[in-house]
Specification:
The protein is mostly helical. Helix content is 52%, strand content 6%. Bound molecules: zinc ion. Zinc ion (ZN) is lined by residues 20, 22-23, 25, 87, 89-90, 92.
C-alpha cells in the first residue's frame, strides 16, 4: 500500500498568501513591513560608512547619522510593502480598505483609468466632427 502523497505547496518566501477580494487572484506578499535582522545589519554598516566619512567634519555628532539611516530604511521597507499590497491586476489595496473604503474605490478607479490610458495610448480627441 502506498501512502497518498499529499504535497502541500508552501510559499517559502512569502509571509502572507491571500486571494484578492476584488478579482480573486492569488496574491502573495514576500516581505513584512518590519525590518529584518539583515536590514539592521545594513543600517549599522551604512551608518558606520557615513559616520566615519563625516567624523572629520562633525565629530561625535556623526553618531546621529545612525538614526537618519534607520529612518530611511524604515520608510523604504514600508513603501515597498505598500507597493506589494496593492493588487497588480485590479488595483485593490487592502491596507486602504481597512481604513477607508471610499479611498479604496477611488484607488481602484484610478488604477483602471490609468490602465486604459496605457492600453489606448492614441486617442484622437483633436479630430473634429464637422
Ligand atoms: Zn485584484
Amino acid at each position: 500500500m502506498k501512502a497518498l502523497e499529499t504535497r502541500v505547496y508552501k510559499y517559502k518566501n512569502k509571509s502572507n498568501v491571500f486571494f484578492c477580494p476584488l478579482c480573486r487572484t492569488e496574491r502573495g506578499i514576500s516581505i513584512s513591513p518590519k525590518l529584518s535582522k539583515r536590514n539592521y545589519l545594513q543600517i549599522l554598516l551604512t551608518s558606520i560608512v557615513f559616520g566615519s566619512a563625516l567624523f572629520p567634519f562633525m565629530g561625535v555628532k556623526c553618531f546621529f547619522i545612525f538614526f537618519i539611516v534607520w529612518a530611511g530604511f524604515e520608510l523604504a521597507v514600508r513603501t515597498d510593502y505598500k507597493k506589494q499590497v496593492a493588487c497588480p491586476h485590479c488595483g485593490f489595496d487592502a491596507t486602504w480598505y481597512k481604513r477607508d473604503v471610499k479611498v479604496t474605490r477611488q484607488l481602484v478607479k484610478e488604477f483602471w483609468a490609468q490602465k486604459q490610458t496605457v492600453a489606448v495610448p492614441k486617442t484622437q480627441p483633436t479630430a473634429k466632427q464637422v
